[in-house]
Amino acid sequence: MKEKPSSAPVNELPRNLKYFLPLLVLYLLIAILFTHHEITGDEIRHLRYATNITHGYYANPGDLEIANGPGYPLLLAPMVALGLPYWLMRSLNSFLLFGAVWYLFKALTLYLPTRPAVLGAYLFGLYPTIFKWLPQLYSEALGLLLLSGALYHAIVYVRTKKRHSRQLIYAGLLLGFLTLTKYVFIHLLLATLVVLGIGYLFTRRKEFSRYSAIFLLACLVYAPFVIYNKIATGKFMLTGDNGAEILYWRSTPYPDENGDWISFDVVQGKDQVDNLDGWAIDQLQARHLAFIQEIQDLPLSERNERMMQKAIEHLKSNPANFARNTVSSFLRLFFNFPHTYTTQKFQTFFYILPGSFLFVFTVLGVLIALYNYKTMPLELWPIFLLGLLYIGELTLLNGSARNLLVISPILFLFNAYVWNCQVQIKLGGPPETINQRGSVPEGEG
Fold first, then answer.
1. pTM
2. CA distances from 243 to 137, 219, 397 (A)
3. Tens digits of residue pLDDT in 146-197
4. Which of 341, 58, 75 is nearest to 227 (CA)?
5. Within 10 A of 58 (CB to CB), how many other CB atoms are there?
6. What are phi and psi of 303, to 5 degrees?
7. CA–CA gap between residue 439 and residue 368 (Å, rounded)
8. Whose CB has fewer CB within 10 Å in the chain, the N or C terminal residue?
């Protein structure tokens, strides 16, 4: 089936914003009506870093804990400096997500007619997992906007015959700020750059060289944070302090634990989560509390080293359980299940049902794309590679539906293209071997 991209000129595209205004209203209602007065979870860390930025530094000088990049705290810092209420800060997520939907729509119109592009953008904008993070000071909405924008500008830059430096700058800056927001992307950019370099050496295709330019610019945007980390911690390419803790849980040797991350504060009874009952906390404390108390007062670097040693010890003693936990991590990306000591609840279906559709269509779409690889636009392959590498890295670390949400624009763009441009479904009409009256042709009876 041939591609039928939208014929609407670029200057007419803003008029299509009216199609998505209902989504903006819905997002604002969710962000305002379901907001809460307490600051919980990652909100505490984001606000702490944002407050630090208003005072001229990032990590606390006395405790150089760098658990995430400065992207989202940089966005919050002006609002913190102005003393805006939390509900107003959270409502910003509605506009960020609206921008993500709009950017994805613009990317879809490069390949699809307007109506399928609107439908694809709505399916993305109504993906249920998104709604949980709207009324919280979490970085998911910002990440979605940055990735959707980077996708659009990157595709436009790579597809055009002439070099448009403006599109290159837009794509590189957005992708670079995404890396500052979700530092896991720096590994993916470097790995994809290697593949692009090899591809360019063998093919000399401009698509590879132009994507390389975008990714290099994104790495340059991230470079000041690398320098800051080196000066502050003495470590090169530090991309977060919680990697050792994640690997500690991923390598757990107990067969009834699934390798998902659990806060040490929960195990110590300092914090509570809805999905863990009292018996589960007792079980976790019996198995992990002694080790946690043993390392909790150590300096951060020594604490991470001890956790890494324990993770390697667990991996060597029980590699089969690590493999099983890896499968569980992959399943959590799409279904947010299974979790350690978590009983099935109605909200489980909130993730499983939409995740099942996304998983099935994506897997079948990959098979279709590989079968029709010669007709797939070359500029889409580096994007899909970035998404696959992300899924692979998160599977090895800490898979969850929240983590998959960040690259959902890639998955929706991929599925929208494959199922609209690579698949043709005909409904109705008689089988070729049957005539119009339903009788079998002569000689075939």
1. 0.90
2. 22, 21, 8
3. 999 999 999 999 998 777 789 999 999 999 999 999 989 999 999 999 999 9
4. 58
5. 19
6. -65, -45
7. 35
8. C
